[in-house]
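ok so dumb question maybe but i'm new to this and my supervisor (M.) told me to 'just get the structure for Phosphofructokinase, platelet' and walked off. so i did the thing. is this what she meant?? sequence i used:
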Amino acid sequence: LCQGYQGMVDGGDNIKEASWESVSSMLQVGGTVIGSARCKDFRTHEGRLRAALNLVQRGITNLCVIGGDGSLTGANLFREEWSGLLDELVQSGEISEEASQIHSALHIVGMVGSIDNDFCGTDMTIGTDSALHRIIEVVDAIMTTAQSHQRTFVLEVMGRHCGYLALVSALACGADWVLIPEMPPKDGWEEQMCNKLSESRLRGSRLNIIIVAEGATDRHGNPISSNAVKDLVVRCLGFDTRVTILGHVQRGGTPSAFDRILASRMGVEAVLALLEASPGTPACVVSLCGNQAVRLPLMECVQMTQEVQKAMDEKRFEDAVRLRGRSFENNLNTYKLLSHRKIDSELPHSSFNVAVLNVGAPAAGMNAAVRSAVRVGITEGHTMFAVSDGFEGFCKGQIKEIKWGDVGGWTGQGGSLLGTKSVLHPIYRPNAFALLQAFESLLQLFDARSRYEEFCVPMCMLPATISNNVSGTDLSIGADTSLNAIVETCDRIKQSASGTKRRVFIIETMGGYCGYLATVGALAAGADAAYIYEEPFDIRDLQVRDTVPYYYIYFIRDLNENCSENYTTDFIYQLYSEEGKGVFDCRKNVLGHMQQGGAPSPFDRNFGTKIAAKAMQWISKKLKEFYRTGKEKLDVVWDCVKSELIFVRQKTYIFNTALKDETDFVHRIPKEQWWLRLRPLMKILAKYKTSYDVSDSGQLEHIVRLRAKDISAI
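this is what came out, is it supposed to look like this??
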């Protein structure tokens, strides 16, 4: 249906049959190829009657609606009126009684497409991550000029009724101040903001960033515009201040890897829901819950979304934040924790030293995690130390105290500013009282406690690897940035193939024995196949199929670097080059270390920041829990303090120690990997015959949390 509801009302050429070929090469295109339009006609009964006639004439009784809460509400109303609309069409003679019976039920499934991420029931809406990419690209560019000229920049981002974009952008770039509709600043915020900006400059900062959601207001409902904030800073502080309004830049551009995968999974789930629907099945919406695509009651989600606005209108701002969901609430709490430094007299007294180090290969987002750990640690009253060059630097004594201001601006930096090494060393350093990051190293330290009493301290590891091969966690810091690098390269490769008739590209990704990057990168780039270690293949799987249309101008095959001892990238390249003579030519690309470089994606910045804050709070809890009064240093019972690994499963932060049995140490991969369930989806979209069913039913988060509270009260 072209042009949304308007096309459904107008009919004619706006309703076309979609073929496999007609949707090819759309994956990397931003916006909507089939168009979208606001439709006043569909709001009227007469408009919906014309829409029903057009659908019946073409035999359409299933609708997959992609839009916001208004579009989905309209779709549900259309479904409820369907029987009455058919009766009217029969009475007017526009359709027969037989046609009315054949098309007696209309099935609706919704998918939420909104850059604001303002729909309750889903962790992320389609388009949000891409909008965050546009915002962060602008912020990173602005920060260089702001630092050069010692300027303050006020950035206005979209979010008339929802502050998600502003909040996550502020968290991802380390903004000095953020203004969002859900949590208006308290009276006197002007003086507090100016004091914070002034203190930042006194500590040596050369720039300030303030992010304002377009719907920001004060506690009395008065709008706070970006220009008003600029005038305030100039009047009170005299800082050179500029305003940048991003506007519709946030809606455009190439979709991110996350959005491509999210939309692909939701699209398949929507089709499965329609195929399984019966006449009595209520309308549902496909949502993302953790790493799972789930179906939720459509109108219940719409009503809860409207409850958020109602809470804001009634100035129940804490309720509005809670109703936005756990993720929004965590983002807000983490931002508050990291952005406002307490004065020394307000800090809790602590004599603990906490060290932070990076181990293994660099991963984008490590610096954001270090910044978060350092600042949360200082807020908890600890003395923070940074270890350079991983355990090698630890052994050499490359340890120095790190202050609040030392990590300013680290969030957007790629690589590892502390330095990192993959080499493991036996360690004996008696003065560091806590450690962060690296699985095997942590196990070695844990085993060494029987020989070295100094290792009987809380230790916590954060999963940080582009390969996403750490046991126990769904995600690792750095994997999302690497996926975006792979997808961006594949997009350029496909453009280079546009002038040829037939061409096969073989692309080798990193990952060792873990096929996460190859599989998910293939899904996001629209590859024809992905060969990985976890799924053995033979010569028959390498056959290039002749069933593709003549005008398919490229194949892309993502090849994991250790997927097979014999079927290497060079072997497959030579095989295709020889066997494809006269039919197609072949090219190979080894992406190499470009997958480890670049500025971290918004997701990795946000993820690293939040997971490090959780880890540091856990360490503080353990330090205080097992500290014995009257001793000069931490004195703990060996069996009481465990080494912990913080992971994310189904959007819940989990501290876990029992992961040895879940890990294949020979190949350095988990024994069970959630993303393998996506491989059938990748094959279906590449036109292979296979089955796919990973669907699940879900519950609205606020209902689950309320039930938990009721149970605890009992």
